[in-house]
Amino acid sequence: VFPSLAQAQASVANEVYQQLGQPSIFLFCPTEYCSSLCSPSPSKSCYLLTLGQELLPGIGIIWTGPKVVSRELSATLLEEVEGVLQRCPVIWDNLYANDYDCRRVFLGPYTGRAPGLMPRLRGLLLNPNCELQANFIPIHTLGSWFQNELRSCDHPDHAGMENTTALGDSQGTQERSYSPQEALELALLDWVAEINRQALEPGR
């Protein structure tokens, strides 16, 4: 019936989206959901080009970055993806995901995401560790990153904050820059306080 997989998927997704009354949040995960799965590249993928043209504009498209688990996300990559999908992507961030190897637990700060990404995102989902309690630091530091991004949107002149900080710019600019190490230290302080609070609860 359909000349390609992308056209079949877009047709079904569009019909479901319309049948549901075009909800404000409707997410579509493509078969090629990261750069390493694209052939030959995101900008030259016939599959992604078709989705960008055929999917209704209200449908959000999920993207994980250069790889399934991406160590870094850059504005340049997001520009390429936005161009081919004809919309800002929803990042499904697998930085902390450990379902592929449950012997590992990721407790470091949210890092590797360039400053100033927010205007190029339709949304961001964090895929956490399978172990609930292990996600205090990931979610806490993601919150710090997110607050910094919101401040950057309010003050677009400071979009290149990591550079101005390195040059010894004003204290105000430094306060607006996201530091993974500082975010980690704040998260650890709050986590210890939360552990102590729970330890004092009756029955603990």
TrEMBL record:
This is OGA GlcNAcase. Residues 1-150 form the GH84 domain. One of its GO terms (biological process) is glycoprotein metabolic process. Pfam families: NAGidase. It comes from the Eukaryota. Residues 162-176 have a biased composition (Polar residues). Residues 157-176 are annotated as: Disordered. One of its GO terms (molecular function) is beta-N-acetylglucosaminidase activity. InterPro entries: GH, Glycosyl_Hydrolase_84, O-GlcNAcase_cat.
